[in-house]
Design brief:
Ribosomal Protein S5, domain 2; four-stranded antiparallel sheet; 5 helices; 12 strands; 29% helix; disordered N terminus
Length: 276
C-alpha cells in the first residue's frame, strides 16, 4: 500500500519518474490529475454475497462483497445496527502480499475505506434494527484485491460503495420474542455516498491515482472522502513520513473534489443501470 521497501524500485526508474513529473508527464501517459480508466462489474459473487462489485482501475482490480447477518447490537448503541469494512490481501494479487493473519497493509486498507463509509454516514444504521437491544442487522463489506498495481484504497472505496448500492438482504420482523423472516428483501438503507480519492506526493509534485512504481517513490499520500454534498467527510495521510504543506493539502483537496464527483456519478449511474 505504498509502505513497502524503497529498494523495490531501481534508482534508474526513480530518476526517470522524477524527470517525467518535472515535465508534467507520467509513466502511462496520463496527466497528473487523471485517473486510469475505471470499470465496474456487478454481481460477481452473487451466490455468496448480498451484493458485490468488481472494480478494474488499470491493472489494479478489487472485489467487494457484502454480507448481512443478524446479531446483537453493541451495548453502547442498542438502537443501531453495525457496519464494518474488512480487507484481505492475498499473494494471488501481488507477490508483495504474504499469507497468514492480516498484515499492516490489509488493516490500514480496511481502516481507511471503513472510515470513508462510516464518517460520511453512508449507511443509516438506525434503520438496521429488528428489535432495540435484541437483534440488529450487521453489514460486513469484505474487500479482496485481485491485482495490485497501485492505489488499492480508491479502487476498494469504489468497489465497497458500488456493492453497498446494489445489495439486498432478507428482512426480519420481531415476533414472540424472536426474529422471524418476512420473505421480503430489503435494500441497504443508504443516506449518503462518499468516494475516496488518493493524492500522492512525489517530490514537489502531486498526482492522482498512483501506479505501483509511483507509490514506491512517493513521499506520502493523502486520501480524502468526498460525499454527495461535496463535503470532505474523512481524510487520512499515509504511504510515507514525508511532510505536506498547508498549500499542498489545499491543492490535494481541490484535486479530490474535482475527481471525486465524476467517479461518484459513475458508481451511481452504473448501479442504476444494473437495477433496470
Amino acid at each position: 500500500m505504498g509502505d513497502f521497501s524503497a529498494h523495490t524500485i531501481s534508482h534508474i526508474d526513480r530518476n526517470f519518474i522524477a524527470d517525467m513529473l518535472a515535465k508534467g508527464q507520467r509513466l502511462d501517459g496520463r496527466g497528473l490529475t487523471e485517473y486510469r480508466e475505471i470499470e465496474i462489474e456487478y454481481d460477481v459473487v452473487a451466490a455468496k454475497a448480498e451484493g458485490s462489485a468488481l472494480v478494474r482501475m488499470g491493472d489494479t482490480s478489487v472485489i467487494a462483497g457484502v454480507k448481512v447477518l443478524l446479531g446483537e447490537p453493541y451495548p453502547d448503541s442498542p438502537d443501531s445496527g453495525v457496519m464494518m469494512v474488512t480487507a484481505e490481501m492475498s499473494p494471488i494479487a501481488s507477490p508483495l502480499f504474504e499469507l497468514g493473519p492480516p498484515k499492516e497493509g490489509a488493516i490500514e486498507l480496511a481502516r481507511v475505506v471503513d472510515r470513508g463509509v462510516r464518517e460520511s454516514e453512508t449507511v443509516d444504521v438506525k434503520k438496521l434494527v429488528v428489535e432495540p437491544s435484541k437483534k440488529v442487522y450487521m453489514i460486513f463489506c469484505d474487500i479482496y484485491p485481485l491485482e495490485y498495481d497501485g492505489n488499492l484504497i480508491d479502487a476498494s472505496s469504489i468497489a465497497a460503495n458500488a456493492a453497498l448500492l446494489v445489495s439486498k438482504f432478507d428482512e426480519y420482523a420481531w415476533e414472540d420474542g424472536k426474529a422471524v423472516p418476512t420473505g421480503n428483501k430489503m435494500p441497504i438503507p443508504l443516506q449518503n455516498l462518499a468516494i475516496e480519492t488518493t493524492v500522492s506526493k512525489i517530490g514537489k509534485h502531486l498526482i492522482i491515482d498512483p501506479v505501483l512504481k509511483e507509490e514506491f517513490v512517493q513521499d506520502c499520500r493523502l486520501t480524502m472522502a468526498i460525499d454527495r454534498n461535496d463535503r470532505l467527510t474523512a481524510m487520512q495521510k499515509g504511504g510515507g513520513a514525508g511532510p505536506m504543506t498547508l498549500e499542498e493539502i489545499d491543492q490535494a483537496m481541490g484535486m479530490a473534489f474535482d475527481a471525486g464527483k465524476s467517479i461518484r456519478e459513475l458508481v451511481e449511474s452504473t448501479a442504476k443501470e444494473r437495477d433496470q
